[in-house]
Specification:
Blueprint (H helix, E strand, L loop, with lengths): L2 H19 L8 E6 L14 H7 L8 E3 L5 E3 L2 E6 L5 E6 L13 H12 L14 E8 L2 E6 L6 H4 L26 E7 L3 E6 L12 E6 L3 H9 L5 E2 L8 H5 L4 E16 L9 H10 L2 H9 L4 E2 L22 H10 L5 E7 L3 H16 L2 E7 L2 H10 L5 E6 L20 H11 L4 H17 L4 E13 L2 E2 L16 E2 L2
Parallel strand pairs: 1-10, 14-15, 14-16
Antiparallel strand pairs: 2-3, 4-5, 5-7, 6-7, 8-9, 9-10, 11-17, 12-16, 12-17, 13-17, 18-19
Helix pairs in contact: 7-9, 8-10, 12-13
Length: about 500
């Protein structure tokens, strides 16, 4: 008898038996998710930073409605609603058995409190305009609330799906910035500033329970560090990966999956329309013609991104391609500057942290220099950008991606940071808000797109692509970003 063969057979038998009696390894129930920016706070009703919603939207906080992964508005805390024939009254029927993470009961009084708080005189809501048409909020009974509008608004249910419209409790609302208490499938655990936020599965969640027990959001702004963290397994998923130049390395590595989709992020070179000489349309047009969109997409985003000519997502059916209207034409840019009587121009260019802004800003500065416009670049941290640019309007130019869904209505706001405030544009948006007919809404949305392109309010560069990287065993991550969110409610590890 061959002893080596006998030993091999015995070993194989023993291994088979061992494997048969060993329990199958359970799939992981915790996940570490990378984010480029740390949120300034965790209250989506009191801050404009996209990073807030990226942590809390759908995970911790919920609204009457919400966006699903396809961008469709679907029921959330409101299981259904009735709309009056005149379009002025929305009666919301609320889910039963809902509790906040502190154990308190959710009911119609919380809805009234949240909507009244968001629209009140002392409101700090960054999107207060979403609630402008609300005339009255009435509690009918604990599970029913009636919202009456001052005028019809065909976007009202859409507006209620924004992160800024989530429902909060009067007992905890004032502390949500550092200790968020919502009704979602995850509850807040802790926040180590400068490093991470932890949230855990809420045991008493009213709806379908989360598949994960714990989610950790890790904040890694440096692209090199982001790459290293994913490769080492310190981060399991990076839904908005900041180093597109590394995506090819992940694509050929079977340990990872690369997820490329679309976002609602219109990436623009924003201009301060009330600050001379940018109050001159010819100067703004000149800047637009000085910018080569494709060079920025290639140089800053390594080819990921779709050129745009207005503030609207190309995947939306109502989109109009207006890129030729501000096509790259340095000679025309120089001619427009001469017509405007502008020479030896130096403009401030203030850039927030994201790589698309920092890298894109350098390319833009070089292209502007070619037509005789000098720039003074200042790299700002996120909190600084929010203060200097967004709030104080102390800037000439900035590069930023607006990731809110279908947000062309921001151009109708009187005191928005790029300070457009055109009365004719406002009329278009007012008519849009009063219209429910789909064909008419499309017509008005297209008119709005053309108006801001005609007025060269900003330079519309590209639609931000969603480039994500994740462990290949992770399922349920959003491919596209119909809103600024890392929705973890359906995410799980495959065995």
């Amino acid at each position: 008898m061959n002893m080596s063969k006998s030993l091999a057979a015995v070993s194989a038998f023993a291994l088979a038996v061992g494997l048969a009696v060993m329990p199958a390894q359970a799939a992981k129930t915790d996940i570490s998710v990378g984010m480029v920016l740390e949120p300034p706070n965790l209250d989506p009703t009191a801050g404009a930073a996209a990073a807030i919603d990226e942590v809390v939207y759908a995970n911790i906080f919920q609204g009457l409605t919400r966006f699903n992964s396809d961008g469709e508005v679907v029921p959330d805390l409101a299981k259904s609603w009735d709309i009056s024939e005149d379009g002025l009254t929305y009666t919301f029927h609320l889910e039963d058995g809902v509790t906040f993470h502190d154990g308190s009961t959710f009911d119609a009084e919380d809805v009234k409190f949240s909507l009244d708080r968001a629209r009140g005189e002392s409101s700090t809501n960054a999107q207060k305009a979403l609630f402008a048409e609300i005339a009255n909020v009435e509690v009918v009974d604990p599970q029913t609330v009636k919202v009456t509008l001052s005028e019809p608004n065909g976007s009202f249910l859409f507006n209620m799906a924004w992160g800024d419209a989530v429902i909060v409790a009067p007992e905890t609302a004032d502390n949500n910035a550092t200790n968020p208490v919502g009704t979602g499938p995850f509850k807040f655990e802790d926040w180590v500033k400068g490093d991470h936020v932890d949230m855990t599965k809420y045991a008493d969640y009213w709806g379908e329970p989360a598949k994960l027990d714990k989610v950790t959001f890790k904040f890694i702004s440096d692209p090199t560090a982001a790459f290293a963290s994913v490769m080492a397994g310190d981060v399991d998923a990076f839904p908005n990966f900041p180093a597109p130049e590394n995506l090819q390395q992940f694509e050929v590595d079977p340990r990872f999956s690369v997820i490329v989709g679309s976002t609602e992020g219109e990436t623009i070179l924003a201009m301060n329309n009330k600050k001379p000489p940018l109050d001159n349309i010819k100067v703004r047009q000149a800047i637009g013609h000085a910018i080569d969109r494709q060079s920025i997409i290639d140089g800053a985003m390594f080819g990921y991104g779709t050129p745009i000519g207005t503030h609207f997502a190309p995947h939306n059916p109502a989109y109009v391609d207006l890129t030729e209207q501000s096509a790259y034409d340095p000679a025309l840019a120089e001619e427009l500057l001469k017509e405007a009587g502008v020479s030896d121009l130096t403009l401030s260019l203030k850039l927030p942290p994201p790589s698309y802004a920092r890298r894109g800003g350098e390319i833009i500065a070089a292209e502007l220099k070619e037509v005789g416009i000098n720039t003074e670049i200042t790299n700002l941290e996120w909190a600084q950008w929010l203060q200097e640019v967004f709030k104080d309007k102390n800037f000439d130019l900035t590069v930023i991606s607006h990731t809110e869904p279908m947000d062309i209505g921001i151009y109708a706001r009187d005191d928005y940071y790029f300070q457009y405030a055109d009365p004719d544009f406002k009329k278009i948006i007012e008519e849009l808000n009063d219209t429910t007919d789909p064909d008419k809404r499309t017509e008005l949305l297209q008119a709005a797109q053309k108006k801001i392109a005609d007025d060269a309010v900003n330079v519309y560069i590209f639609q931000l692509a969603k480039t994500g990287v994740a462990n290949a065993k992770i399922k349920g991550l959003w491919e596209n970003s119909p809103t600024q969110a890392n929705d973890m409610t359906q995410v799980y590890w495959e065995d």
